[in-house]
Write a structure and sequence with these properties.
alpha/beta; 5-stranded parallel sheet; 5 strands; 48% helix; globular; UspA domain-containing protein; UspA
């Protein structure tokens, strides 16, 4: 079974990447994994404050990925695998790929202005990934994605 990993955040590019990955999964009879990243919070001299900030960021990420999963389920009738991970985004994605050998492709959305740290990082290091990397133009709309299938 083909499994597509999508990084979920609040950007329009992530929504386009999710739409693209879901169409790939539906076409292949596969599955989607959604990974929401919670970057580490800047160090605070007060550990309790930092822990609270990280917990709030994690809660926002959980709501976001659960909402995306609900949209995917309502469109496809399939429940995706969802994960929320705390840490440096590049490291977290690499670790996720290493611990999930079933992943067939990493699907990322690129913004028009090119300010995508994950796209920049993984396109530069794509030769070391355990799976193909799909970069979807972030200014596509769902109709553009649908035209590809």
């Amino acid at each position: 079974m083909r499994v597509y990993l999508v990084i979920i955040d609040e950007s329009p590019e992530a929504k386009v990447a999710m739409t693209y990955a879901s169409r790939l999964a539906l076409q292949a009879g596969g599955q989607v994994h959604m990974l929401a990243l919670v970057p580490p919070q800047q160090f605070s001299a007060f550990g309790g404050v930092q822990a609270t900030m990280e917990e709030e960021a994690r809660s926002r990420a959980e709501v976001m990925v659960t909402s995306a999963a609900g949209r995917y389920f309502s469109e496809s009738g399939r429940m995706p695998v969802i994960s929320v991970e705390l840490g440096e985004p590049e490291r977290v994605v690499r670790e996720y790929l290493a611990t999930h050998p079933e992943i067939s492709a990493l699907v990322l959305g690129a913004s028009r202005d090119g300010a995508d740290p994950l796209v920049s990082h993984f396109s530069t290091h794509s030769g070391t990934l355990p799976c193909p990397l799909y970069i979807v133009p972030g200014d596509w709309v769902p109709e553009t994605v649908e035209d590809q299938f």
